[in-house]
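From the thread on structure requests for the teaching lab: each student submitted one protein with a one-line request. Submission from student K.M.:

"Model Probable membrane transporter protein from Tibeticola sediminis, tokens only."
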Amino acid sequence: MNETAGIWALLGLAAYAAGVLNAIAGGGSFLTFPALVFAGISPISANATSAVAVSPGYLGSSLGLRRELALVPWPQLRREMLISALGGWFGAMLLLVTPARVFSGLVPWLLLFATLLFALGPRWVRVGAPAADAPLVRWRAPALFAVSVYGGYFNGGLGILLMALYTLAGESRLPVANALKNLNSFLLSLLSVAAFAWAGAIAWPQALWMMAAATLGGYHGARLARWLSPRWVRGVVIMTGTVMSVAFFARSFA
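Reply posted by the TA:
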């Protein structure tokens, strides 16, 4: 196998594994982003391309949770959809104006932050308080905008942040919080991907190849989720995030 074929095989494998992980526990961007950087794509373009690669799963998850979304009043749902879309667009534009060297320096810290979010996420999700007693109930809209900006800028750990936000903002029904997480992840990703495409930041051949592989991985991952231990998968994701963080720190100091 020549080097070019090996790179494409690596990208396909990373995207497939990311699809599996996202279907079971999340954390797929820990694989797609580093694989794209290893393939020689600049960090900003790799981040944009990675966002495209993992985006189809959000739509499928949202469609599968239509009943849960129907439990949210339409005016509230519409307002939060708009907030998420605007936040994702703003985060993407912020990434596009960030100098490449600055973003490269931020990458190890962003990966480490996302890994810590993933590791601590279950504790945060369980602390959701009912309605008015929730600590972020009055800050739900601005907090959602801030999290959406982060998601548009760097996708790692987005799902955990959204789940923590909704439970801390008074959404005690975890299935509904999960449905809102998937819907708003899809919307902010859609707007951020549109901004990346407009700016020419996406490596489309790699993105399309990885989208197909991630979709297949998501399909198989949904089946695996029936018998594979989520705790074991979470351990693999945390280990992967830690290794990638260390690797990027070593690279930045080299």
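TA comment: Residues 79 and 147 are 15 Å apart (CA to CA). The chain has twelve helices and no strands.
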